[in-house]
Amino acid sequence: MKQEFYKLLLSWPKPFITDTDLSAVVGGTDASRYGLVNRALKEGLLIHIRRGLYVISVTGREISLNLFELSQFIYGPSFISLESALHYHGAIPEAIYAITAVTMKRSKEFETPMGHFFYQSVPKDQFLLGVQRVEQNMASFFLATPWRAIADLMYAKRKFWNHLNELCEDMRIEIDWIQNVDHEILEELKTKYPHKKIRETLNKFLDEIT
After folding, report:
1. What is the pLDDT of residues 44-61, one digit of tens each?
2. DSSP 8-class letter at 173
3. CA separation (Å) from 39 to 2, 43, 57, 66, 152?
4. CA–CA separation, 182 vs 197, rounded Å?
5. Structural domain boundaries of the chain?
6. How far is C-alpha 74 from the geometric centre of its chain's CA atoms?
């Protein structure tokens, strides 16, 4: 392993690196970069996630890996939604054993050394409606607000609840919690989410809590 490449991995500002990054900072031919990457993989200094994407596992690095941030590099454009977003917001108590996200591309799953990543296709229109950018311990990722995650769940599973109580019982969400979640986001989603039945359902929920 060339010492310069080792130092690059040790000091890289993100816990993962791409072939595009390497092409920009290492230079040389594709074959020479492939040789460096292949050796780093064999020595355990890089972990292959998918084509062109690697997690850095050099001893001594202080930057921790955030799986939500990594998910957006595995498959994008995408953002964290569905069960992972609801768990992040404290809406559902159960541990989540896969990272769940939505994308404007086709649905896809990835099994990686870092875990299982599931991406559900949703409409391109209003793709970032009800989505927030989160900065967390040097990581950055996009995250659905609770009501956007619920809307995406309805779209992904084609499951519609007649009343707020049905939603809460099915998803194990505390009714007091959901009644206090941002009503402004719900107002936007019930008029702009690109699926008529979901808009109608969200409108019923809004009527129940206001």
Report:
1. 999 999 999 999 999 888
2. -
3. 10, 6, 13, 25, 42
4. 21
5. 3-56, 67-209
6. 9
Please tell me the pTM assigned to this model: 0.93
Topology of domain 3-56, per CATH? Arc Repressor Mutant, subunit A (1.10.10)
Q: Letter for the amino acid at 116?
A: H
Per-residue tokens: 51: 């084509």
3 state DSSP class of 157: helix
Residue 60 confidence (pLDDT): 81
Strand blocks (E) in 75-170: 78-80, 99-103, 108-112, 115-121, 131-136, 139-144
Of residues 96 and 115, more confidently modeled: 115
- How far, in Å, CA of 199 to CA of 205, rounded? 10
Q: Check residue 181 and give left, alpha or beta (phi > 0: left; psi -120 to 50: alpha).
A: beta
